[in-house]
Design brief:
10-stranded mixed β-sheet; alpha/beta
């Protein structure tokens, strides 16, 4: 597939859904979006990993829509397109610069893959105008390798999920039985691009590298262990792994009742013990009760210009 074919909004094949939607016209892709970028919030965000948020906050830009659409999504009101305001590439570039002026540690692109063409354009514009802080690409992991390659030289830090190993789980929860094979290939490209882990010696903030997130789901610790083993066997200490227990049941599930509760302390400890047994040392873990809706940002258009 050529770059032009990949990035063609009138026959969209940007994500692994390969939906061929004419996003320049009246159609929307599987992601729920047309060709115009929509965002729900652009503000300092303090709830990422310590080396991403630091003390000053990450400049998080939350994009509307999603090509994965997990049934338990904690940001469901932007993933399903309910909340979002249109911005041009020029406005998006100015938003990046505004966040830099506010002292953001980095620009954190949250679920931006379905707007890749416009994001690349905005990053070039912003860098021409003086954007210097690191760029973080915050992703579900469900991305085409060809798409990730378009970000080479623009993104400094990749922050992908690796959600599932079992194809039955990814089919049931994210309508994507091919999730693991797609995410594994995308993450491999991200690691190749980012290179060695690099941190600021004074602030401890990350400058380059990859942090792979895994959110433990209630009742599915065995799958979490398979994910962690794969990541450690494949990357050893060349990446960080963020093992999260913050799953919050915000959408009531009838078919999968195990998703209607939080992860227990015992479940989390079981997965952490397994990670230690595997030899994982480059990891972030969460302590205490973090599974609260208060950790989900308000998508109130903060930092987004009015239409």
């Amino acid at each position: 597939m050529t770059k032009e074919e990949l990035l063609s909004s009138d026959n969209c094949r940007l994500c692994p859904r390969n939906c061929h939607a004419d996003r320049n016209g009246t159609q929307k892709g599987f992601c729920g979006e047309g060709s115009r970028v929509r965002i729900a919030r652009a503000a300092l965000h303090f709830w990422e990993e310590p080396c991403i948020s630091g003390k000053v906050g990450s400049g998080a830009v939350f994009f509307t829509g999603c090509s994965l659409r997990c049934i338990f999504c904690q940001n469901h009101n932007i993933a399903d397109g309910t909340v979002g305001r249109e911005v041009t590439s020029e406005q998006l570039a100015d938003i990046f610069l505004m966040l830099q002026t506010k002292g953001a540690a980095n620009i954190n692109l949250v679920t931006a893959g379905h707007f890749l063409l416009q994001v690349v354009e905005a990053l070039h514009l912003a860098k021409e105008k003086g954007l210097k802080i690191p760029i973080v690409y915050n992703s579900s992991g469900y991305e085409r390798v060809e798409a990730i390659r378009q970000l080479s030289g623009l993104v400094d830090i990749y922050l992908p999920d690796c959600k599932y190993y079992d194809s039955a789980l990814s089919r049931d929860f994210s309508h994507a039985p091919d999730y693991f094979e797609i995410a594994a290939a995308a993450i491999a490209e991200m690691v190749t691009q980012a290179g060695e882990l690099s941190f600021d010696e004074t602030t401890g903030l990350m400058k380059r590298g990859v942090i792979i997130r895994h959110l433990i789901l209630p009742g599915h610790t065995k799958d979490s262990m398979k994910v962690l083993k794969y990541l450690h066997d494949t990357y050893q200490d060349s990446v960080y792994i963020s093992i999260m227990n913050q799953y919050t049941p915000v959408v009531r599930q009838s078919r999968f009742p195990e998703l209607n509760r939080t992860v227990t302390k015992r479940e989390y400890e079981k997965v952490i013990d397994f990670a230690l047994q595997c030899g994982i040392t480059q990891a972030f873990i969460q302590e205490g009760d973090v599974a609260k809706e208060s950790f989900i940002p308000k998508f109130d258009y903060e930092g987004v210009p009015k239409e």
